[in-house]
Each structure stands twice: as C-alpha cells, then as structure tokens.
Amino acid sequence: MNIITYHTMKQILKYVVLAAIVVQGTSCYKSQLYPVPTTSISDLSAFDTKDRIEGQVRGMYATIKNAGMYGGRYQIFNDIRGGDFQNMTTNVVTGFDIWNYTPSNSSTNSVENHWGRAYLTINQANLFIEGMDAKGTSVVGDALSKNLVAEARFIRALCYYSLLQFYARPYWDGNGSKPGVPLRLKGNKGSDNYAMSRNPVSEVYAQILDDLNFAETNLPLTNGTAILNTTRAHRNTAIAFKTRVNLSMQKYTDVITEANKIVTATAPFTATTGVAHALQADITNVFKTPYTTTESILSMPFTPNETPGTQNQLGYYFGYSSYNGGNGEYSLQATGIIADSGWKSDKRRTFVVLNTANSRHYIGGKYPGASPFLDFAPVIRYAEVLLNLAEARTRSTNSVDPQAVAILNAIRGRSDPTTVFTVASFANAQALIDAILKERRIELIGEGFAGADLTRLGLPLPAKPGVSAIPATGQQYIWPIPATELLLNTEMTDN
C-alpha cells in the first residue's frame, strides 16, 4: 500500500516534492519518477497501527534501493567517473555520458533520475517524521518511535550525501560555501509553493551530520538478526557512515573520533559494542550468499520478487554474457589499477574475470549472480571504515602512523599474506597516503568510491581513451542541475 497525494499535472511533474510514503516494502511503478500505488490509504490513517508505521519505514528502504539510487546506479556512476573502467557500449542509458564527463541537464537516465529519486525518498522521510510527531509516537510508544524516526533520518542523510557528491562543488572548495542543493526538511503533500534556492554545501553537510548524530543516539544497538543488521540501520551503521561524511569534508580528526567508537586500537580490528563488525578472513565471503557477514554494514538486498530492474544491476554492468549473462557495459582499463605491479595475485584478483571473446577483463566476480542479478548492492563495508581511519590518522598527524600501517596490513594481508608493510616501508606521510588510496582502489573497486574519492581531494577526473581529463576547476567536474528542477523551481540555479 502507498500513500500518495495526486495533484494537477504540474504538481505531479514536481517529482522533487512528490508526497509519497510507501507502506509496503515493494511498490509498482509506471516509471522511475512517478510511483503509482496499487492500493492507497488516506494519510490520515497511515499512522493508525504499528504495522502501518513500520511498513512505511520498510518502504523508505525499498525506495532508496531503487536502481537510480543505492540499488546500483549510485555505485556505478561513482565508479565510472574514475579511471579504472572502460565503456564498451557507448549507451547513454547505461552511463556513457557519465563515463566521458558529458552529462547534460536533460539526461534523464542519470542527472534527472538520481535527483528525482533522492528527493522522493527525502520527502517520504520528512512526511514520516512529521506523522510520527503528530500521531505515530502515541501509537507505538516513545522508544520504538525514536528507533523508527532515527532510521528515517539516516535514510535522509544517505540521500543528501549522494546529491552533494554529484550536483555540488566539494567541501574543500570554499570550505563548504559554494551552492549545494535545496535542503528540504518539510514534507510536501499539497499544492504548496515548492520554489527553494540552494543551501550552501556546508549547511547540507551540517544537516547530514545532525541526522546521523540523532540516528546514532536513537537507533538500536542491533536489529537482532544478520539479515536485518545488514539491510537496516543500527547504531554502528550511523557511526560508520559518519566516517565517510567527515572524510568527504576533510575533517580528519572527526573521522578518527567516529571510527574509534567501532574500531579497536590494535589488530584484529573489530567493533566491540553494538553489532560486532570485523573483516572477513576471506573477502570472497562478503560477495556471496547470504551477503550478511559482519563486514557488511549496509547493503541493499534483492529477491526474485524484488529485482534491481532492467539495465540497472551491478552484475549487468560489470559482468558479460558468457560469464553471468551480463551486458559487459564496463570492462577494466588495461592501464588502470589491474596493471599495478604492487597488486599481486591476491584473493581480490579472483574478482577480475577475463572475457576471452574480446580479451577484456571485468570486475564481474564481485557480482557473479546470473540474471536477474540479485547480488546485494554494497553501501557500507567495515573495510571502508578501516581505510577511512587509516587515511585520517595519516593526514591528521602528517606522519607514518603505526596504526594506519597496521590497518593497511589488515586489509592487504587477508587477501595477500605475502605482502607485509612496516613503518620503514614508507619514506614519509605522503607515501603512506598514496598506499592507502591505492588500497582503496583495489579493495573497493566496483562498489562506488572512485569518483567521490577524486572530488573530495580535488584531484582531476582522469583522462581515458578518447576522453580528456577534467581539472578540479572544470565545469564538468560536477553534474548540471536537472532540467525539470530548473524549469519548475524558479529559485534554482544551474552549475
């Protein structure tokens, strides 16, 4: 069941403020932008029962794992903005314009869809929070209400973070003073005036952290089962995501503060409170059924009844026909990270598969499931948290930090025990930072980090065959604002 308020066609086109609260975990859509409910209930009764209230939270997860968001394309778009993937099909529908840095504000399969899906989810979260204040808390009680509102605020933070990575200048450019995105914190379900200007990047990040701080305080320590601990937020999920957010802002001491809550000072690195996050001894276990290891902090799940959708799945993009039925949209650049001599034949090399038909390598081994490609889409892994901490410690101390070296050994050593780093392995802090960034490229490839890692550090988007590099000052460094938003929001300005 869904709640959705129908407006005139003009209001419907304002997808950025669609009043939709999805009550069940699955929904029927005529298009990615305009959800059409199979069953509707009044918003006046949406908070009448505990089941309806909890269903709305499940619905928010269903919306955010849409392929246009964290169900696949957020990860794909970030990866193909880096220098390790080669486009094979020149298909704009599957991100060719993103790969070659030429998205336009009318590019509906990238610029338009991600914006629309993010704001749809944000509006669901806003309406839910308001509904809990007005009625829901009295139905489920204060403790459960805080848990559920914390999930809504965590999801809202995920959405705003994703928008900043694509549509706004990085935080380092003017210390967050450049235009960000409209900070919508009020639910929309009527014919209001939706015109809103862009908040500064710093204000959007401040709201993200405020949401995550609330989530940390009010989410449960554990959701009780491995599947729920992987697919729904708990306290450590919020903490882990804060390490990413602060890293994006270059707030390195804050990264350390957050990471220290869930990372022990020495190896083996683990979370000793809440969900017991830890690296898996074998990385391949993270990417196979049941996808619920303690390393998997947050993933988007799929089932035969709830698939990622055609031309959106990670396996479709990064696999190929004779391997898993994928379309081979993106192979690995022969001169990219797979050519690095320091990346030996470790376990992570097993994810790299060779298509003998075209002699190209693919990262399809991370997502080997055949069509309909039901591999879980990873969003946050404990390995990322450790690498965030290692980088932050090195940058904040400007030294070859011993804990950072130990973390680097933990990540490399579980896949390649023949390589052991020591403090003496690095001539200075920059050498260690370079090693950590390289380890991120190896460890997190195919999981959606390349583009954001480049932009948060002010590095150019790299040249590719037939594609020139984009400097950090270039207009194409970030995406344009969608044409629909520019048309219908009179206070919006383009990039």
Determine Rg (CA atoms, Å): 22 Å
Shape call: globular
- Unreliable segments of 5+ consecutive residues: 1-40
* Share in helix: 40-55%
Contiguous helical run count: 17
| SSE-based structural type | mainly alpha
Strand content: 5-15%
Beginning-to-end CA distance, first to last residue: 38 Å
Query: H/E element string?
Result: EHEHHEHHHHHHHEHHEEEEHHHHH
Short description:
By secondary structure, the protein is mainly α. The protein has 17 helices and 8 strands.
Descriptive report:
The chain is mainly α and 495 residues long. Among the domains are: 168 residues, no CATH class; 74 residues, no CATH class. The protein has 17 helices and eight strands. A hairpin with a 4-residue loop joins strand 6 and strand 7. Helix 2 packs antiparallel against helix 5, helix 9 runs antiparallel to helix 10 and helix 13 packs antiparallel against helix 15. The longest helix is centred in the N-terminal third of the chain and has 33 residues. The protein is globular. The relative contact order is 0.13. The N terminus is likely disordered.
